[in-house]
Amino acid sequence: MNLMFCGDKNIVDGVIIALLSIMNHTEEPLSVYILTMAFEQNGKSCEPVPESFAEYMNKILKEKNSESFVRVIDASGEFRQCIPQKNLETRFTPGCMLRLYADLIPELPDKILYLDNDIICRRDFSGFYHTDLEGAELAGVLDYYGSWFFRRNILRRDYMNSGVLLLNLEEIRRTGLFEKCRERCRDKKMFMPDQSAINKLAKVKIKADRCYNEQRKLKSDTVFQHFTTSFRFFPYIHTVSVKPWHIDKVHSTLKIYEYDRLFEQYEEVRTAYTREKEISR
Question: Which residues, other chains included, contact 270 with Cβ-Cβ below 8 Å and sequence gap of 6+?
Fold first, then answer.
């Protein structure tokens, strides 16, 4: 299975949790690619995911399956070729837009599952991963809120969330989808830049079941839980943003306790990785 994460050094905690949870629910070898970069402009800055993190997680994955690996890919040069200038001042970091540069990375396989770093896997996801993408650019799940408000066809909800996307990079390279998305992010300010661009410009998308990107409330059939920002209406209208590594808030705010064993694994790995970094200095 080919997996991709994107971002700067701040995604480390989320990637640990995501990978540990995935390892708990598949026996297949995992080829994990992390696109990262160094960037600084107009107060926005990114420091890349360190190679030491890939090396450490590589060891963790190989303990489960010797064919698995983790590889960090520096996409700084690709990013600078087409900087999303109009969207650098939004709340979205430059690093989160790196998924739009995947077609420029020759070592990435033709089919790859992109995941945001605030994802937890809780069931086998092979049914989604092995979706036939023939003729389609990608497969994903409707955005919980956006699919009601942003749609090209008023009669049909088709606006997808970009946090879990099964990508057909061969087709994306052929159609130029990501190239068009990068140009749109460079030239046009948008509410959710990369997600909006993908939804605007993708020609053929496959809609998958909600269970593969549950953005709202944990359900019995949830495969990937996505810890997105959500709205609450009681006792007043407010937003709630809790990430998997905010363990106390996962308990107190979301009232979720089923991941406690996973969180124990995460804390063990995070502590060991931090200790190893300190020793190697």
Answer: 13, 16
**Separation between Cα atoms, residue 247 and residue 257, nearest integer Å:** 9
Candidates 71, 73, 72, 58; CA nearest to 23 is: 58
Q: Give 91-139 pLDDT, tens digit per residue.
A: 667 888 999 999 999 999 999 999 999 999 999 999 999 999 999 999 9
* Mean of per-residue pLDDT scores for the chain: 91
E strands of the chain, at which residues? 2-6, 31-36, 39-41, 44-46, 69-74, 111-115, 119-121, 138-140, 164-168, 205-207, 224-226, 230-232, 238-240
In one letter, which amino acid is 172? I
Find the CATH number of the domain harbouring 175.
3.90.550.10
CA–CA dist 195, 100 (Å, integer): 10
Tally of domains within the chain: 1
Structural domain containing residue 40 = 2-280
Q: Report the pLDDT value the prediction gives residue 240, as an integer from 0 to 100.
A: 72
